[in-house]
Amino acid sequence: MEYSQLPKQAQRFIKPAGLPDKVRLPTKYHYIFRGFAILGLLPLSASVLMALTLSGAEQTFYQVVTCLLCPPLLLLVFLKHHLILDNQTQQRFVQLTILGYHGKKSHLAPLQSTELLLRHNSHNRSQFELKLHDIVYPIGDLADTKLLAMFFANLFKLTAKEQISDFPHIHQLTFDSATGSVSREKIPNTSNKQAQVESKPCAEVTLSQARHSLDSNQNNQSAVPINSAPFIEPLLQPKLVIRIFYPLPFLMVFGFIMKYVGSL
Fold first, then answer.
1. pTM strictly above 0.70
2. Distance from C-alpha of 237 to C-alpha of 81, rounded to nearest angstrom
3. Which of 173, 123, 150, 125 is nearest to 7 (CA)?
């Protein structure tokens, strides 16, 4: 499978550099660095504007503020935090990089121990995502998500699993690279005592045991609440609403600073 066959949503976080020997995937901290860098552009642009329009002591003050803001923002821009899958060393690790300098490897583990799970999106069950190790990448369409799972499974010889067809049970996915078909196989459960009892011949079960089993099943069914209602997607998702207010503390601090400076 070629890199050009991947969906556009997957190509946003998978870069062709290093393939097929190595792939670098952005982590949650990588996006946090980018988010703080974008938020830092607000006070930096305001300081640059004030430094160009004002004069005297106020202009000098904003020039100093601009010089103080530039180094941390540049640091956040060049900081990269990636999950790396290495085919050559058969290892998986997380690494921090800045301006070509690679930091110490963390969370070092064998490549074959990497979790590859296809599941519903955490915020929208009509969409799908791929969990790789402990990082979740939202893809969107089910076909595109399966295509990305097949890409990782074939390239790095990983075991792909899915949690969609029989939620919350996990099934193993098998891919046919020749036809592009996908099939699933249920992961065996070690605690399967009930199946072993049901597989006994009927001749071994006495009438009294059958009545006792029937009574116990009826009692269990009456005790366990039935939850057969279909899943309804909520109109208001709290996590998405909270994300809107992420920049609010920074904007408030910036506003107080501007008010204080204006009153000097």
1. no
2. 29
3. 150
